[in-house]
Amino acid sequence: MTHSSTIASRLAAGVQPFVTTPAIRFIAHLGLCAAYIQGPLTKILDFDAALGEMNHFGLQPAALFAVAVIVFELLASAMILAGILRWLAALGLAAFTLAATFIALRFWELAPGQERFMATNAFFEHLGLAGAFLLVAWYDLDRRNEAGGKPLP
């Protein structure tokens, strides 16, 4: 065993008891879902702005899409946080995030400059969110498999 792998093993052993606790897992899920909780709450508090957002992206009928997005994001987030079909909710939010990213952050259509720069960064940040939700789904399904198919917290 090399010196660097020994250090890495010791570091991992030191942080594992803290990082793998249920509280940290919940905080991680909450952080990942934060935008999918804040967004719908903002839409509820300013439904006219939510309608404007749907109209801006050509999603008609705007009211139906706004309500669907609100319900979907809140429900999927609640499922992830509660551990109810977490894998399914995570896959749903991954797909939703990818679709919304390709609708809202079409950086390749923008002229070079600050707006394109910001849209490009946001596009790739959203790809990261989708990837994180895929990891949540993978981890949840893997843990279920190890537990004989039983749901886990």
From TrEMBL:
Signal peptide (UniProt feature, chain positions): none
Organism field: Ensifer canadensis
Entry keywords, A to Z: Membrane, Transmembrane, Transmembrane helix
Transmembrane portions of the chain: 62-81, 87-108, 120-139
Membrane protein topology class: Multi-pass membrane protein
Source species taxonomy: Bacteria, Pseudomonadati, Pseudomonadota, Alphaproteobacteria, Hyphomicrobiales
Subcellular localization: Membrane
Name this protein carries in UniProt: DoxX family membrane protein
GO terms under cellular component: membrane
Predominant location category: membrane
Record-linked Pfam families: DoxX
Taxonomy, superkingdom: Bacteria
